[in-house]
Amino acid sequence: MNRGRKASAAAAAGALAIVTILTAGGSPAAAQTAATTDESITHDENPRVPEGAAWTEAYFPSSDGSGVELHADVLRPAHLPAHAKTPVILSVGPYFAHAGQTGPEGWDRVGPSARFQDLVDGADLMARGYTFVMVDLRGFGGSTGCLDWAGPGEQADVRAAIQWSASQPWSNGKIGMYGKSYDAVTGLVGNNLKMNALKAVVAQEPLWDMYNYLFSNKVPRPNVTGTPAAYNSIAVMPAMADDSDRYKANALYEASHPECLSDNITNNNNPDADSAYWRARNLAKDAAGTRTPLFVTQGFIESNTKPEDMDEYLTNHRGPERGWLGQWDHVRGNDTDGDGRLQMGRAGWFDEVMRFYDQYLRGTPPSVTDPAYAIEDSLGHWRAQKTWPVIGTSYDARLSTGRYVDNGGASAAAAESRAVDQGRWDMERAPRMEVLSHAEKNAAGQGDASASSFWTWSTPASQALRITGTPRISLKASTSGNVMVRLWDVAPDGTATMFDENVALIERGGRISFDLKSTDWTVKRGHQLGVQIGTIDSNRWRDVPSGHTIKVSDARLTLDVQNPRYDVPTRGDRSPFLDTFLTANTTTLSDIGRGTFPLRLSRNG
């Protein structure tokens, strides 16, 4: 690489990089490796390098014997000797290309990705003596191979990245992973690999099961083809003019392997969650028995990476856990809005993260006792808990028998719901807000006068209670079609907020059961729970209405309930997105029934 600058004094001794020898045909021969020195570049020599850091690049093979070569950018504390051992924070994902995260960003020279410069600067990583490593997943940036949507290939990449980072002469052998969105997914993958070198994972707004981003119980989401196409476009992003020849050659991998792109579309357009393809990507199930310390964040009202199967993942995980859970959208713990308000509403993100890393990567006991879980409920109140969820009682609520026409809603609602952007949709450039359409609100307001759904009402809550965990619906359908289930928090004056929903394909008449999204919703005294069952009249799915009249019987809603009376308050402000969500998902209902099932706490609650 012609960087046009001298090596820094900190690199005089050379930074060790593992280089894979290429075969004559240009494919990496993973078995042949050699150690070589590589000059490092500091901020003074290249402003794309964070202040206090020395940047080098490295290549190493993936761990599956496929010949895939992975590229890494390494940021080392510039004030330390080249081989000074430090703990390593590792991020693995598709967004670390030198040219930009999801597309070219207009840089005038090559340099490391700025994706997590907020962490490097905000947590003062270099001064603290941490090394930060960014690894391109196969098919992205300077890595070869076909992108694999968190499948066995990408899991092998994560394994290799952890092994490589732990084995370097500048590493103390203790690795922490960090990410948000896709590179939070790879953190969950790392935990699932059960590797001794991985000591801690920070995963903000991940997917807990890759299937759920594209399908809901065999009903496709509108991004079912847009998301694979978006990642294909990231994979073919060209290298920069001053990238090395090796980086450029790797970045062109898809040009000679077009099947990478076509297979990514085809493989991900499979609605069967029980297929071998999706079973290999069920991160929640594969977390069983894992023990890596986790620090996670999740917005319950997220419009992008939703809290589906989070409950299962955390239940299966057996190690120490930390978490910020609340009422926000797809944001980082340190993100602020245009008015400078923290998007998650809680201050001190980097301080807590670094106490977490120092504890598990350095063995330094924290000087401050942070709550295991800090949780914001739907009223904007923060509480501390030892785990999530905390359930006072669980019970099945019997729902009414009813029928609906699976017509996609009234004609206006159907047209509105289908008018959705089918274009670019990756985890970083997804729609930032899902709202009930005008037609959906009108249909809900009609109550049982609408042929497309029917309702069951709880009796008014005798005291405040919280619906937490993962509600589950089970029902018997008379014939095939589609079904949507929504939960509404209904005030005495009929003002109602839709706070949870999910859908399913009914392949044949008979019993069907499925989870709604995980939630943490406080119902005030005197409010009722409205359960709406009917056709899918929403732009959040791309269903094919059957036209059938579907009779629903023997329906039951499983609820996990917590008593807010025992909440332990912790610091935190109301997240700004909560009010946006309430405005977008609130309407007025009429003809509200007196209620046929109770909202109740346990007897000792």
From TrEMBL:
Q: Indicate whether Signal appears among the record's keywords.
A: yes
Pfam hit, one: Peptidase_S15
Q: Which UniProt keywords apply?
A: Hydrolase, Signal
For this protein, the record's InterPro entries field holds: AB_hydrolase_fold, CocE/Ser_esterase, Galactose-bd-like_sf, Xaa-Pro-like_dom, Xaa-Pro_dipept_C
Q: The Xaa-Pro dipeptidyl-peptidase C-terminal domain covers which part of the protein?
A: 354-558
SMART domains per the UniProt record, alphabetical: PepX_C (SM00939)
Single GO MF descriptor: dipeptidyl-peptidase activity
SUPFAM superfamilies with a match to the protein in the record: alpha/beta-Hydrolases, Galactose-binding domain-like
Query: This protein is called what?
Result: CocE/NonD family hydrolase
- What is the species of this protein? Micromonospora musae
Lineage from the top down? Bacteria, Bacillati, Actinomycetota, Actinomycetes, Micromonosporales
